[in-house]
Amino acid sequence: MWIADNWKEYEVIDCSRGEKLERWGDYILVRPDPQVIWDTPRTQSGWKHKNAHYHRSKKGGGEWEFFNLPDQWDLHYESLTFHLKPFSFKHTGLFPEQTVNWDWFHRKIRQADRPVKILNLFAYTGGATLAAASAGAAVTHVDASKGMVTWAKENAAASGLSEAPIRWIVDDCVKFVEREIRREKHYDAIIMDPPSYGRGPKGEIWKIEDNVYPLLKLCARLLSDRPLFFLINSYTTGLQPAVLAYMLSTELRKFGGTVEAQEIGLPVSCNGLVLPCGASGRWEI
Predict the structure, then answer these.
(1) Burial 236-274 (b: 16+ CB within 10 A, else e)
(2) Cα 135 from chain centroid (whole Å)
(3) Distance of alpha carbon 5 from alpha carbon 23, whole angstroms
């Protein structure tokens, strides 16, 4: 398992009975997590003295209960700054487990010692984009949500990266990739963080089980003659690490390189265990 253990301002304090107790900077949140199927004693004080609690509804969805939480606050990772806020369906605007991948490709970009062009698909609020840009890469950031792209731009400004070579694109990721192929554009690395289910700006339906492999095949056509890496993340239970590895190996074998896939996770500070948080597949030269 790849573990995101370099955080200073974030931690999973405890997890029990379908929920996790987290510290996000100065604030304590309780959020649901379907992986937490164990029932252990809730002895940590944060369970009673939280700033906000997201309650999942039995009918689907849920809602936040606030005790003492600002509308927005900042969280820092290395040189990056992120604006956080309680968001729909339990989210805050950041997936802390992804820093294990940020650290990996940050090193890859630095060690390449050449200009690196990166395509970041389903780029959300820009965590991977900013991690890559801070390493010196030129990044094309694509997300179907205008609101998410605006949020990502705000994070870039807060991180001192307003002038970094980042293209901000609001578009359906599949259609954008198809257009880039027609334009004969190429990238040295591709990051793909697809949702399990989603809709594009014109109602395009995305189901990861049906659409991720065709998109991977298209993306392989965008890689340059000297590709550096390809990263796929998955939060869908049915897509195990071995599935990600198999897809990458099948489509990228012509470039050589190596493929590895693992679960990613976050350390739990109260007991030293690791909470699984999805899977990642990496192809690299």
Answers:
(1) beebebebbbebbeebbeebebebebbbbbbebebeeeb
(2) 17
(3) 14
Whole-model pTM: value is: 0.95
Bridge partners of 71, per DSSP, are none
Mean pLDDT, the chain, whole residue set: 96
CA 201/CA 106 separation, integer angstroms = 30
Question: Cα(281)–Cα(257) distance, rounded to whole angstroms?
Answer: 13
Separation of alpha carbons 30 and 48, rounded Å: 10
d(CA 236, CA 55): 21
Residue range 51-61, pLDDT digits in tens: 999 999 888 78
Q: Give residue 278's Cα distance to chain centre.
A: 10
Quote the tokens at residue 13. 């304090």
CA atoms within 13 A on the CB side of 253: 6
Q: Quickly list H helices, 185-236.
A: 208-220
Q: Are strands 10-16 and 19-24 parallel, antiparallel or unpaired?
A: antiparallel
Q: Which domains does the chain have, with CATH numbers?
A: 2-84 (2.60.40.1180), 96-284 (3.40.50.150)
Residue 94 dihedral angles phi and psi, to the nearest 5°: -155, 140
Instruction: DSSP letter for 234, please.
Output: E
Tell me the per-residue pLDDT of 150-166, one tens digit each, with 9 for 90 and over. Answer: 999 999 999 999 999 99
> What burial class does residue 282 get, using C-beta atoms within 10 Å of its C-beta: 0-12 exposed, 13-18 middle, 19+ buried?
buried
